[in-house]
Fold this protein.
Amino acid sequence: MDKKKEAIHIVIDPTSGIPYYRQIILQIEMAIADGRLTVGRQLPTVRSLAVDLQVNPNTVVRAYNELEIRGLVNTQHGTGTFISDKRVEMSDVDREQILAQLVRGFVSQSASYGFTVHDIIKYLTDYREEGAL
């Protein structure tokens, strides 16, 4: 599947220790950096994203406001919030650090249920072979 055609799917991890608004910002920045969100693309409305993520709308407002201050989005009152033409560069090191944090959390949580890294790798391999990845 072409990354540029994928829909942005924001997920909040309540166990990460990272404030929800920062998680939203980071995921939008990554989607801009890797081309999943392109210039002119409309973001979900504050209300719809808040409902989807089950967070207070003020959390989404804070994230969108910070993205606007950084010049990554433009808000047109009554119309919506759109991706601007400002580029986001994310180094391989930055991406690797984010992935490492996500994997550590996932492996740790999986271990608390008794799963091993071997179990996870086997599952992911089978999942990929089924065409899901």
